[in-house]
Amino acid sequence: MIDSPEHTKEIPDLPLEQVQRIVDTYVLRLKALMEKRSHCYVLLFKNYGKEAGASLAHPHSQIIATPIVPQEVKGRLQAAKAYYERNGRCLFCDVIGEELRGGERIIEEVDGYVVLAPYDSRFPFEVSIYPRDHSHDFTTMTREQRRGLTRVLKRTLSRLKLLLEDPPYNFMLQTAPNPVPRPGKPSYCATLP
User: How far apart, in whole angstroms, are the C-alpha atoms of residue 46 and residue 54?
Assistant: First the structure.
């Protein structure tokens, strides 16, 4: 997906209206891909900079749809399910609540989102953006939630660009597996726990 008609402008450089178009297009493309029963999981990602794996110079994002749920996603779903069965609460909502109470890793809480540096960061300067209210599916966001994400995404990437002098980065959108039932499968996908 091409992010901008301007060859040298990335999300931090674009006007907010263009970033809004990008986020709205993400939602439209994910919805369209999830209409196909053969797509168990849809992953949206952006690699910025050669060191981050970008293969094209023009600003773009990528979306792939797979017939299986990737192992990493499956593992997170299994952990969340086990946590819910033990505690009767959402793991991710509890993590966000605990981070907000502690406050030390919170970058900002604004526009319906919490931006934080994860406790278990796998990479230097890793940042996570969570919706403030429980939500498992990116494609079900309201217009106002998409506006909030647009502002938070642009602000977060702008801060990283300024602070780290335009570093290469990757971002991934993690959403629920495809809820469209597959023929003969009563649950979302045969590969889910």
Answer: 8
